[in-house]
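A common beginner's mistake is to predict each chain separately and then try to dock the pieces by hand. The better habit, illustrated here, is to supply every component at once so that their relative placement is modeled jointly.
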Amino acid sequence: MAYRLDFDKLLTYDVGKPGITIAISLHLKEQRTDFTAKIDTGADRCIFERKYGEQLGLRIESGAPQRFGTAAGAFLAYGHDVTLRVADLQFDAMVFFAAEESFTRNVLGRFGWLDRVVFGLIDYEGKLYLGRYGVE
Amino acid sequence: MSVEQLSNLKQQIAALPFSEKEQLAAFLSEQLAQADESLSTNDITDDEIRQRRLEWIKAHREEYAGQYVALQGDSLVGVGSTIKEAHEQAKAKGFPNPFLVRLDSENEILSAGW
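With all components supplied together, the output reads:
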């Protein structure tokens, strides 16, 4: 049996680099910040560096506190309601900003991003297909 | 809708049996309530809505930990163990584009991946 999915967007990424890294932007009122993030299906949430939240004008510690664990230990982050945009697909979502400035990773995780897109991957060719779930 | 179209619609409604008029009245009341809620939401700024949502999430995260909630402004319009379940509830109540978020206990340590 064959299965078929339709996608709105095709992104390409550099297969020579570690991780699947794509361009994203966060928006809040008139503020906008652009950077790259790695797609990580093992991350429960979208987690970004503190500086990107501050660039949106957020007081990081006013958000919803949450601890996250990695193989190397745990860290604290704060959840905020922002607009997350990837390849022209945008959602209002709760994303997390690390409390510590030394935290330098940016990941698109499951709750808040993966749970609202249709996602296809051909890593061999560095192709990432994306669509908004629920749009015919 | 033009005045003529509205007049025609009223004539058609006047000709309906009582039970169908009752159904129509209930439907219109529901539509008016939703429009009223929508208007009151539009009166406040996007920033205020986000702030209210965040406060709601902080106040209710333990109550709904492990579940998705659908919020319209700071009103709960759907809840479920999956995003689909929460969204479907919100849509059934007339809110097709709610803010959808999964809540977790503050005491839970979530996976950051890698």
